């Protein structure tokens, strides 16, 4: 065997061996939001199980700022070696990029790894509203455009964009009142100072159960096990109002497919683990079916959501805050 043939054989044998050793050190997972939020809780639950699959710990790094774009950009610039991963969601990887002029492309500069659990929103209102269902709410809004108001947890937030979409679908108009977070918004809703909001299930659930607010619909295709009496937007007559805060994992574009496959397997194993599933269910997170946890499935849902939400955001003239 000549030297060139020997070298070629050595390289051929070395490539899979190198792939088999991944990961040989801890994997950093970037959270583009401050510590303590729902994304943080999700990644900590999943990382325990993923560590067992990968044989290496996941080190959480918080890179917040500019509505999450700093953290997303940190991963876009990272080496495509599988040691830097992003956990993001509909906001960070779809809606917010429509507001900013970014030096990276959220589709082309990332390799999708796995779709993670999702959390649909509830359309809820003050308990003194004269409407008892979604159709009656829309009729009341049309009859009282000068009286109605909708709260949001912040300008350009997902509930803010959902409110604009709701106006477009129903032909209603009302002021959107931004708050500094969902907590103050909910306090004003309970007090009757605003009329309705789009809110996450976890924060609305206690107030629905104690009668402080009323629920009109869940913005998903299926009813929630924790609120089986609340209809979906489809059942309530507004089928276009689907909005779910889905999560996903991404790595820098150009990451070798075998590494993506290994990370995907770890994420799928985590979502199949009974103890992990129980903890996610406690947070009212909906785990996607296994065929929707693939890299391709995450790419498809992100691409479809960009086509849906970017025109809405741009038509509304929303600007970064």
SSE blueprint and pairings:
Layout: H1 3-20, E1 27-31, H2 38-54, E2 58-62, H3 69-76, E3 84-89, H4 90-95, E4 110-126, H5 134-143, E5 150-152, H6 158-170, E6 176-178, H7 182-191, E7 196-200, H8 201-209, E8 213-218, E9 244-252, H9 257-272, H10 274-282, H11 295-315
Helix pairs in contact: 2-9
Question: How many distinct beta strands?
Answer: 9
- The total of helices stands at 11
Task: Return the structural class.
Answer: alpha/beta
Task: Report the mean per-residue pLDDT as an integer.
Answer: 91
Task: Please describe what this structure looks like.
- It is a single chain.
- The chain has helices at 3-20, 38-54, 69-76, 90-95, 134-143, 158-170, 182-191, 201-209, 257-272, 274-282, 295-315, and strands spanning 27-31, 58-62, 84-89, 110-126, 150-152, 176-178, 196-200, 213-218, 244-252.
- 40% of the residues are buried.
- α2 (38-54) crosses α9.
- Strands 1, 2, 3, 4, 5, 6, 7, 8 and 9 form a nine-stranded mixed β-sheet that branches.
- Helices cover 43% and strands 18% of the residues.
- Mean pLDDT is 91; it is low at 3-18.
- By secondary structure, the protein is of the alpha/beta class.
- β1, α2 (38-54) and β2 form a beta-alpha-beta unit.
Brief characterization of the structure:
This protein has 321 residues and is α/β, with parallel strands linked by helices.
Which tags fit this structure?
nine-stranded mixed β-sheet, disordered N terminus, 11 helices, 18% strand, 321 residues, alpha/beta, globular
């Amino acid at each position: 065997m000549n030297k060139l043939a020997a070298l070629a054989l050595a390289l051929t044998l070395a490539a899979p061996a190198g792939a088999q050793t991944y990961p040989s050190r801890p994997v950093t997972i970037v959270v583009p939001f401050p510590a303590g939020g729902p994304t943080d809780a999700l990644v900590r639950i999943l990382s325990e199980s993923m560590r067992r699959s990968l044989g290496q710990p996941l080190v959480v790094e918080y890179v917040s700022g500019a509505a999450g774009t700093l953290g997303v950009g940190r991963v876009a610039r990272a080496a495509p070696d599988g040691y830097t991963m992003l956990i993001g969601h509909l906001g960070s990887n779809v809606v917010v990029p429509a507001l900013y002029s970014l030096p990276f492309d959220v589709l082309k500069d990332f390799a999708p790894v796995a779709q993670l659990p999702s959390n649909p929103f509830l359309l809820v209102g003050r308990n003194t509203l004269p409407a008892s269902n979604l159709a009656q709410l829309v009729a009341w809004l049309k009859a009282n455009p000068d009286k109605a108001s909708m709260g949001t947890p912040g300008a350009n937030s997902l509930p803010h964009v959902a409110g604009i979409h709701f106006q477009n679908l129903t032909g209603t108009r009302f002021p959107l009142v931004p708050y500094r977070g969902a907590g103050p918004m909910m306090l004003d809703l309970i007090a009757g100072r605003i009329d309705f909001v789009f809110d996450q299930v976890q924060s609305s659930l206690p107030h629905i159960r104690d009668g402080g607010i009323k629920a009109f619909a869940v913005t998903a295709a299926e009813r929630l096990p924790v609120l089986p009496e609340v209809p979906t937007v489809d059942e309530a007559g507004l089928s276009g109002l689907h909005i779910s805060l889905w999560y996903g994992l991404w790595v820098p574009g150009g990451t070798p497919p075998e590494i993506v496959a290994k990370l995907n397997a770890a994420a799928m194993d985590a979502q199949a683990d009974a103890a992990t599933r129980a903890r996610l269910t406690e947070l009212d997170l909906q785990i996607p079916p296994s065929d929707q946890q693939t890299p391709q499935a995450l790419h498809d849902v992100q691409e479809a959501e960009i086509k849906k939400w970017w025109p809405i955001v741009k038509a509304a003239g929303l600007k970064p805050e």
